[in-house]
UniProtKB/TrEMBL annotation:
InterPro entries: Glyco_trans_2-like, Glycosyltransferase_2, Nucleotide-diphossugar_trans. The chain crosses the membrane at residues 239-262, 268-293. Residues 11-172 form the Glycosyltransferase 2-like domain. This is Glucosyl transferase. It comes from Knoellia aerolata DSM 18566. It is a multi-pass membrane protein. It is found in: Membrane. Belongs to the glycosyltransferase 2 family. GO terms for cellular component: plasma membrane.
Length: 323
């Protein structure tokens, strides 16, 4: 079941931003592997608005590599957006997304494909079993990140799975049907609920060039992950308001008792009560506002509340979103 008009089995989507240093190494390793799969494939190189020689190198490569397809984004739009662009355009029955820097060993693609076929699953996650080549900071921040998301957002995302994964056509169609912005695919995919499996791999060191993920982009990804899947931070104000309200009641009781016992200065009681009560009311009002903003946010994301996998009346239509 390919996309209409194509007979491509596998699409390999590779986001790249200023990857001139690593591109020749990537091609040298990936091309023999892809050719060796003995299946119709395409490589969808998504040039995320690179300002180095990446686009020139890609065009040159295309001359004698017919399976290479180049999609260039006008501006640097970020890793996740680049992957989304690739998924929208990929035509294969299966689609693999992989980083350009050879940190995700391309040899694993064959295993992912085999697992998907043998086990009949829609998603095969590449799970980093050994991250010893990453810096200690990256390992610890990543560990904290995955744990925080699992707790806050309650999604059953495999720990230590990044964006190296294989997806079936049905999964890709489902992702493409989501209208939401700033999606973090490593959490969106598990939330869709397609049958999945994992293969472990060792995360290698970047083969050349430098990381295109500075701290600012990492923080952006974390904020998008939490706010994309959880209203907990928004509800925080409601809880603060409730706590503040309780505290104000306590202060009120204390002030009244102090007044009765004659320990209070004139005017003190009313001042304290007013300050406490106003603060509590404000926080509560903010919380209520937050609840409504949250509902609007949900409606704006327009995420289907479920995907039907099968209906005995109609047969399988796995990619049909239901609102
Ligand atoms: N990337 C991209 N756009 C960006 C940043 C990164 O397409 O704005 C690509 C990059 O070329 C690479 C992948 O995303 O193929 C992962 O980036 P990188 O290896 O720099 O991240 P790290 O492994 O350091 O977290
Ligand atoms: Mg990398």
């Amino acid at each position: 079941m390919s996309a209409p008009g194509s007979a491509i089995t596998l699409s390999i989507v590779i986001p790249m931003f200023n990857e001139e240093a690593v591109l020749p190494l990537l091609v040298e390793r990936l091309r023999p592997l892809a050719d060796g799969l003995r299946t119709a494939y395409e490589v969808v190189a998504v040039d995320d608005g690179s300002s180095d020689a990446t686009p020139v190198l890609l065009q040159r490569l295309r001359r004698d590599w017919p399976e290479l397809r180049v999609v260039r984004l006008r501006a640097n739009s970020g890793h996740q957006a680049a992957i989304s662009a690739g998924l929208q355009r990929a035509r294969g029955d299966f689609v693999v997304t992989i980083d350009a820097d050879l940190q995700d060993p391309p040899e694993v693609i064959a295993e992912m494909l085999r697992v998907a076929r043998e086990q009949g699953v829609d998603v095969v996650y590449g799970v980093r079993e050994d991250r010893s080549t990453d810096t200690a900071f990256k390992r610890h921040s990543a560990g904290l990140f995955y744990r925080a998301i699992r707790r806050l957002a309650d999604i059953d995302a495999p720990v230590d799975a990044g964006d190296y994964r294989l997806m079936s056509r049905a999964t890709v169609d489902a992702i493409n049907s989501l209208p939401e912005h700033n999606r973090v695919l490593r959490f969106v995919v598990p939330a869709l609920g397609f049958p999945s499996a994992s293969v472990g791999y060792t995360r290698e060191v970047r083969a050349a060039g430098t990381s295109k993920y500075p701290l600012a982009k990492m923080l952006r990804l974390s904020v998008d992950s939490v706010t994309g899947f959880s209203l907990t931070p928004l509800r925080f104000a409601t809880w603060l308001g409730l706590l503040g309200g309780l505290a104000a009641l306590g202060v009120l009781a204390y002030a009244v008792i102090a007044r009765i016992l004659g320990h209070a200065l004139p005017g003190w009681t009313s001042t304290v009560v007013i300050v406490a009560a106003v603060g509590a009311v404000q926080l509560l009002a903010l919380g209520i506002l937050g609840e409504y903003v949250g509902r609007m946010y949900g409606a704006m994301q327009a995420r289907p509340t479920y995907f039907v996998a099968h209906d005995s009346l109609e047969g399988a239509h796995p990619a049909q979103p239901v609102h």
